[in-house]
């Protein structure tokens, strides 16, 4: 600890004696010793110094009073006046002014060198500095060990690191990402700029990660170095977590893709699903998160809110899939929570919800339900009864994609060559239940133009949109193309 004026007075070998009645700063830590013979030393002081002088230029009462006022304005903790040089005792005018402004005055005998006082203060400051440095290094070691140790209270990782940080700084800590709480030593708290200190944590990603510390802090000095070091560790660990999540989601995605496309032997399916954390014997549902292609890389490594701790996340065909046990609760509420979180991350998504089914076939059904729901384009799309198209797509035994390509291929090629918009006309015709008037109005066309385009569609594909059987074939081909 830095030494105080009262501690110096208590050292008999110095022979110091307190003069006057001022005691306000006797217990204030001395930041440094300033020896001066200037009449106005204020410009050279930064505060909390002990001012030592022999009063060589303080020969008048007016000069002595000005000196005290300048020292007081500079925030000094006191004046040490050396006698036996130009003054046999502390001048009465200086002492009276010091009492008036509550500046303690200490008489320093002739035989006590100023250097001895300065050395004591410097040694005390050095001891305090090394004590803080040792505490800082010990804190750094504890933080690093807690991050890497699996045997700690929180099992290692970010949670263990932040738990240790809370113990060291003596205040509550919260880690947020995209304004969602990732970890908190005070669950349910809502950090704000008034009662909490925000510390941005850079990870090289646009993830709006913030570490909050609750005010006040017991030790401001140690806190700064400790928090800076913890921020650095968090930055590296969170960046590493992004890579681990991406790798894990690609691995889980490969397993799910094999299950969805029935490319695994029946005997291996259950074991492969359990290997990525999915229990095929329980009912599971899927959330499919569709995002713009430019955001898919960020989506593949993004951390999820704690509400999704029980979910298995995977990336299939560039889309994020979350497999949740049906026992986790309201899937619609979970999807809305996820949508808000991703919106805060700056990722516009369309989330499709699949139904809850058991076994690998159930995962396929849930996936195609979710995939079809996501095409509705809302932020959160509730599951609907599985359509004939999705049921057929869930079975790899039916070559629907080949059928759709063969059926619609001539229209796509004709549109590409002639900019004819036959496919757009067909989609509108089927969506509007075959009403020529409605199609003409929707596309701003004459009815005869619509009739002509429909005849072209029939000629190119061999399927007449006016016939029910052919209409089903065309509708099915369009649905498969949209979902695939």
Automatic annotation (TrEMBL):
Pfam families: GGDEF_2, HTH_30, PucR
Domain of life (superkingdom): Bacteria
Residues of the PucR C-terminal helix-turn-helix domain: 422-479
Domain CdaR GGDEF-like stretches: 266-374
UniProt domain Purine catabolism PurC-like: residue ranges: 8-124
Family classification: Belongs to the CdaR family.
Identification of the protein by name: PucR family transcriptional regulator
């Amino acid at each position: 600890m830095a030494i105080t004026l009262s501690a110096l007075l208590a050292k008999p070998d110095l022979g110091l004696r307190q003069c006057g009645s001022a005691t306000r700063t006797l217990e204030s830590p001395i930041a440094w010793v300033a020896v001066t013979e200037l009449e106005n030393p204020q410009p050279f002081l930064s505060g909390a110094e002990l001012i030592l002088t022999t009063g060589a230029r303080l020969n008048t009462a007016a000069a002595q009073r000005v000196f005290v006022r300048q020292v007081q304005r500079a925030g000094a903790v006191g004046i040490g006046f050396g006698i036996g040089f130009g003054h046999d005792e502390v001048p009465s005018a200086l002492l009276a002014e010091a009492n008036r402004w509550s500046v303690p005055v200490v008489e320093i005998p002739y035989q006590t060198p100023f250097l001895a006082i300065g050395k004591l203060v410097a040694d005390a400051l050095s001891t305090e500095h090394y004590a803080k440095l040792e505490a800082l290094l010990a804190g750094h070691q504890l933080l690093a060990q807690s991050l890497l140790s699996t045997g700690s209270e929180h099992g290692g990782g970010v949670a263990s690191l932040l738990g240790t940080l809370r113990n060291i700084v003596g205040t509550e800590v919260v880690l947020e990402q995209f304004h969602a709480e990732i970890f908190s030593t005070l669950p349910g708290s809502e950090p704000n700029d008034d009662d909490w200190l925000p510390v941005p944590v850079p990870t090289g990603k646009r993830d709006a990660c913030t570490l909050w510390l609750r005010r006040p802090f017991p030790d401001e000095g140690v806190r700064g170095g400790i928090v800076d070091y913890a921020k650095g560790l968090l930055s590296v660990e969170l960046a590493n977590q992004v890579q681990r999540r991406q790798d894990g989601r690609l691995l889980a995605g490969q397993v799910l893709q094999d299950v969805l496309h029935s490319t695994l032997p029946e005997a291996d399916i259950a074991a492969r699903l359990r290997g990525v954390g999915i229990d095929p014997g329980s009912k599971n549902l899927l959330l499919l998160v569709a995002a713009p292609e430019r955001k898919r890389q960020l989506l593949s490594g993004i951390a999820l809110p704690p509400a999704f701790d029980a979910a298995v996340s995977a990336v299939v065909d560039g889309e994020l899939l979350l497999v949740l046990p049906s026992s986790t609760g309201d899937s619609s509420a979970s999807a809305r929570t996820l949508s808000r979180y991703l919106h805060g991350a700056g990722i516009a998504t369309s989330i499709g919800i699949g139904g809850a089914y058991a076994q690998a076939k159930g995962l396929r059904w849930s996936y195609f339900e979710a995939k079809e729901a996501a095409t509705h384009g809302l932020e959160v799309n509730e599951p609907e009864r599985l359509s004939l198209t999705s049921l057929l797509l869930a079975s790899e035994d039916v070559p629907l994609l080949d059928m759709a390509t063969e059926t619609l291929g001539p229209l796509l090629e004709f549109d590409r060559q002639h900019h004819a918009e036959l496919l757009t006309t067909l989609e509108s015709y089927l969506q509007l239940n075959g009403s020529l008037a409605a199609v003409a109005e929707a596309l701003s066309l004459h009815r005869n133009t619509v009739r002509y385009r429909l005849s072209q569609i029939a000629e190119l594909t061999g399927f007449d949109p006016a016939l029910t059987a052919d209409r089903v074939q065309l509708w099915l081909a369009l649905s498969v193309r949209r979902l695939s």
